[in-house]
Design brief:
The chain is mainly α. The protein folds into two domains: 167 residues, no CATH class; 85 residues. The protein contains 14 helices and no strands. It starts with a helix and ends with a helix. Belongs to the DedA family.
């Protein structure tokens, strides 16, 4: 799959945009998104944006189209085949996750659809579950559209940062700066992820794990957030940072 996408991308701009739409479509499609390494693929496509080979806004638009198609098809499948789906053995393997999703949709449908778009395991299940519950279209579409608009650039962002970093002119400090930048991105991501787990563990106990119990998250999540934010502030004073910001600005404003 990844080799085929690489072949498409190298052909032309149109094929690269098609690849973005295809990945976002499959990542959003019911159950398929659970098997597809869509995050890695989106990051790879993001490097094309960061290096200037692909425009951010055309890629963003292609991502929105793929996302909406995947979600709406999943929603339609859930609505049309809710009976057989409940009896499907493969779906029963993910029954626990599906039950959580259905419960969240009953409690806070709009919030769940919007936030669930950014959570890997629930992303390909939410539209399907919404259709199976016969959630009215008027409740499904607004948060779904908002989520599909905001999601593509967020998932392209790691690749964009990597692509911009690759384009930094070689110099005495460029090599070390790229490693520092990678470390900062990982620290910020880890802090945000642990913060998310801490917030969810406070609402649902089954989000806690033996390795990350609520008691440990209570101090680990804030500490990780502080370290991540601190490292992000500190790297702003690196001598290579003005060059990086200039290249990054070109990606967004041309």
């Amino acid at each position: 799959m990844e080799a085929w996408l690489e072949h498409l991308i190298t052909q032309s701009l149109e094929w690269a945009l098609f690849a973005v739409a295809l990945v976002t479509f499959l990542e959003s499609l019911a159950l398929v998104g659970l098997l597809l390494p869509g995050t890695v693929m989106m990051a790879s496509l993001g490097t094309l944006v960061g290096s200037g080979q692909l425009g951010l806004y055309p890629a963003w638009a292609a991502g929105i189209v793929g996302c909406l198609l995947g979600d709406w098809i999943s929603y339609g499948i859930g609505w049309k085949f809710q009976g057989p789906l409940h009896r499907w053995k493969y779906l029963k393997k993910h029954q626990k996750m599906l039950d959580k999703t259905e419960h969240a949709l009953h409690q806070h449908s709009m919030f769940t659809i919007l936030v669930g778009r950014f959570v890997g395991p629930t992303r390909p299940l939410l539209p399907l579950a919404a259709g199976m519950l016969e959630l009215p279209v008027r409740k499904f579409l607004p948060p779904n559209i908002i989520g599909c608009i905001l999601w593509p650039p967020l998932y392209l962002l790691p690749g964009i940062l990597a692509g911009v970093a690759i384009d930094i002119p070689k110099g005495a400090q460029s090599g070390s700066f790229k490693w520092l930048l990678l470390a900062v991105v990982l620290l910020v991501w880890l802090g945000a992820w642990l913060g998310w787990r801490w917030w969810r563990a406070g609402k649902q106990r089954d989000w806690a794990t033996p390795y990350l119990p609520a008691q440990r998250l209570r101090w680990l999540a804030p500490l990780s957030l502080i370290i991540g934010i601190g490292s992000l502030v500190a790297i702003q004073f690196h001598p290579m940072m003005p060059i990086f910001r200039q290249l990054l600005t070109k990606v967004f404003v041309g």
